[in-house]
Amino acid sequence: MASCSTGVQQQLLAGASSSVLGSTSSLQPEEFTQWQGRRWATKKQGGSTKNKKDSQPKYLGTKMSDGQLAFPGQMLVKQRGTKFHPGHNVGMGTDFTLFAKSVGLVSFRQGSVLLPGRAPSAAKQRRYIDVLPLNNDWSEGYQAKVAQMIARRNEIRQQSLGLAAKYGKK
Description:
This protein is of the alpha+beta class. It is 28% helix and 21% strand. The chain is elongated and about 100 Å long.
Protein backbone atom coordinates (compact mmCIF):
# COMPACT_ATOMS: atom_id res chain seq x y z
CA MET A 1 0.00 0.00 0.00
CA ALA A 2 2.88 2.33 0.75
CA SER A 3 4.26 1.87 -2.77
CA CYS A 4 0.85 2.75 -4.23
CA SER A 5 0.63 5.98 -2.25
CA THR A 6 4.22 6.82 -3.22
CA GLY A 7 3.32 6.32 -6.89
CA VAL A 8 0.30 8.59 -6.52
CA GLN A 9 2.47 11.18 -4.82
CA GLN A 10 4.99 11.06 -7.67
CA GLN A 11 2.19 11.44 -10.24
CA LEU A 12 0.82 14.40 -8.33
CA LEU A 13 4.28 15.94 -8.19
CA ALA A 14 4.75 15.41 -11.91
CA GLY A 15 1.37 17.00 -12.67
CA ALA A 16 2.11 19.86 -10.33
CA SER A 17 5.39 20.67 -12.03
CA SER A 18 3.54 22.93 -14.41
CA SER A 19 3.56 26.69 -14.05
CA VAL A 20 1.14 26.51 -11.09
CA LEU A 21 3.78 25.59 -8.54
CA GLY A 22 6.79 26.45 -10.63
CA SER A 23 9.53 24.02 -9.60
CA THR A 24 8.65 20.90 -7.59
CA SER A 25 12.22 20.33 -6.56
CA SER A 26 11.63 22.37 -3.43
CA LEU A 27 8.75 20.11 -2.33
CA GLN A 28 9.57 16.73 -0.87
CA PRO A 29 6.82 14.04 -1.07
CA GLU A 30 6.27 14.13 2.71
CA GLU A 31 5.77 17.89 2.68
CA PHE A 32 3.40 17.68 -0.29
CA THR A 33 1.10 15.16 1.40
CA GLN A 34 1.06 17.21 4.58
CA TRP A 35 0.07 20.26 2.59
CA GLN A 36 -2.44 18.33 0.48
CA GLY A 37 -4.08 16.50 3.41
CA ARG A 38 -5.71 19.58 4.90
CA ARG A 39 -9.42 20.00 4.31
CA TRP A 40 -12.00 22.55 5.30
CA ALA A 41 -15.48 22.15 6.70
CA THR A 42 -17.92 21.50 3.90
CA LYS A 43 -21.09 22.38 5.83
CA LYS A 44 -21.97 25.58 7.61
CA GLN A 45 -22.84 25.43 11.24
CA GLY A 46 -26.57 25.52 12.02
CA GLY A 47 -28.04 28.76 13.33
CA SER A 48 -29.96 29.30 16.53
CA THR A 49 -33.64 30.08 16.99
CA LYS A 50 -35.78 31.55 19.75
CA ASN A 51 -38.84 29.49 18.85
CA LYS A 52 -37.77 25.88 18.97
CA LYS A 53 -40.08 23.30 17.45
CA ASP A 54 -41.47 22.29 20.83
CA SER A 55 -42.15 25.84 22.12
CA GLN A 56 -45.58 27.42 21.82
CA PRO A 57 -46.01 30.73 19.96
CA LYS A 58 -46.62 33.73 22.19
CA TYR A 59 -48.82 35.80 19.81
CA LEU A 60 -47.21 39.11 20.78
CA GLY A 61 -47.66 42.37 18.91
CA THR A 62 -50.29 44.93 18.00
CA LYS A 63 -53.83 43.60 17.72
CA MET A 64 -55.45 46.77 16.33
CA SER A 65 -54.07 49.33 13.91
CA ASP A 66 -54.38 53.09 13.69
CA GLY A 67 -57.90 54.33 12.97
CA GLN A 68 -59.76 51.14 13.97
CA LEU A 69 -62.80 51.27 16.26
CA ALA A 70 -62.08 49.88 19.74
CA PHE A 71 -64.54 48.91 22.47
CA PRO A 72 -63.83 48.67 26.21
CA GLY A 73 -61.80 45.64 27.14
CA GLN A 74 -60.48 45.00 23.63
CA MET A 75 -56.81 44.15 23.51
CA LEU A 76 -54.73 46.69 21.61
CA VAL A 77 -51.17 45.35 22.14
CA LYS A 78 -49.75 42.25 23.77
CA GLN A 79 -46.13 42.83 24.69
CA ARG A 80 -43.25 41.96 26.99
CA GLY A 81 -42.22 45.08 28.83
CA THR A 82 -43.35 48.54 27.79
CA LYS A 83 -42.61 48.84 24.10
CA PHE A 84 -45.84 50.84 23.89
CA HIS A 85 -47.16 52.97 26.77
CA PRO A 86 -50.82 53.58 27.61
CA GLY A 87 -52.26 56.93 26.55
CA HIS A 88 -55.77 58.41 26.82
CA ASN A 89 -58.53 55.83 27.57
CA VAL A 90 -56.03 52.93 27.54
CA GLY A 91 -55.18 50.68 30.48
CA MET A 92 -52.30 48.30 31.12
CA GLY A 93 -52.66 44.77 32.47
CA THR A 94 -50.25 42.99 34.79
CA ASP A 95 -48.48 41.37 31.82
CA PHE A 96 -48.07 44.79 30.07
CA THR A 97 -51.03 44.13 27.76
CA LEU A 98 -52.69 47.37 26.65
CA PHE A 99 -56.50 47.43 26.41
CA ALA A 100 -59.17 50.00 25.59
CA LYS A 101 -61.10 51.64 28.44
CA SER A 102 -63.65 53.44 26.26
CA VAL A 103 -65.19 53.37 22.79
CA GLY A 104 -63.17 55.27 20.22
CA LEU A 105 -60.63 55.20 17.45
CA VAL A 106 -57.16 53.79 18.05
CA SER A 107 -54.34 56.29 17.61
CA PHE A 108 -50.57 55.77 17.81
CA ARG A 109 -48.27 58.67 18.69
CA GLN A 110 -44.72 59.35 19.81
CA GLY A 111 -43.71 61.61 22.64
CA SER A 112 -40.60 62.50 24.55
CA VAL A 113 -40.36 62.12 28.32
CA LEU A 114 -37.84 63.92 30.48
CA LEU A 115 -36.86 61.71 33.38
CA PRO A 116 -36.09 63.37 36.74
CA GLY A 117 -32.49 64.35 37.27
CA ARG A 118 -31.59 64.11 33.59
CA ALA A 119 -30.49 66.73 31.11
CA PRO A 120 -33.08 67.91 28.57
CA SER A 121 -30.97 66.37 25.81
CA ALA A 122 -31.43 62.95 27.45
CA ALA A 123 -35.22 62.88 26.93
CA LYS A 124 -36.49 59.40 26.06
CA GLN A 125 -38.74 58.78 23.08
CA ARG A 126 -41.84 56.75 23.94
CA ARG A 127 -44.64 55.34 21.83
CA TYR A 128 -48.16 55.82 23.15
CA ILE A 129 -51.49 54.30 22.15
CA ASP A 130 -54.64 56.37 22.64
CA VAL A 131 -58.31 55.57 22.16
CA LEU A 132 -59.75 58.90 21.04
CA PRO A 133 -63.50 59.60 21.24
CA LEU A 134 -65.49 59.47 18.02
CA ASN A 135 -65.71 62.84 16.25
CA ASN A 136 -63.29 64.17 18.87
CA ASP A 137 -66.20 64.50 21.34
CA TRP A 138 -64.94 64.84 24.92
CA SER A 139 -68.28 66.00 26.39
CA GLU A 140 -70.23 64.41 29.27
CA GLY A 141 -72.98 63.26 26.89
CA TYR A 142 -70.42 61.12 25.10
CA GLN A 143 -70.48 58.60 27.97
CA ALA A 144 -74.22 58.00 27.37
CA LYS A 145 -73.51 57.41 23.68
CA VAL A 146 -70.74 55.00 24.64
CA ALA A 147 -73.10 53.05 26.92
CA GLN A 148 -75.63 52.75 24.07
CA MET A 149 -72.96 51.56 21.64
CA ILE A 150 -71.71 48.94 24.10
CA ALA A 151 -75.25 47.66 24.75
CA ARG A 152 -75.94 47.42 21.00
CA ARG A 153 -72.64 45.64 20.42
CA ASN A 154 -73.43 43.10 23.15
CA GLU A 155 -76.85 42.43 21.56
CA ILE A 156 -75.24 41.79 18.18
CA ARG A 157 -72.65 39.49 19.72
CA GLN A 158 -75.30 37.48 21.56
CA GLN A 159 -77.33 37.10 18.37
CA SER A 160 -74.32 36.02 16.33
CA LEU A 161 -73.27 33.48 18.94
CA GLY A 162 -76.81 32.19 19.42
CA LEU A 163 -76.87 33.06 23.12
CA ALA A 164 -80.24 34.83 22.93
CA ALA A 165 -82.03 31.66 21.78
CA LYS A 166 -80.10 29.45 24.17
CA TYR A 167 -80.80 31.46 27.33
CA GLY A 168 -84.19 32.92 26.33
CA LYS A 169 -82.97 36.52 26.11
CA LYS A 170 -84.43 38.90 23.57
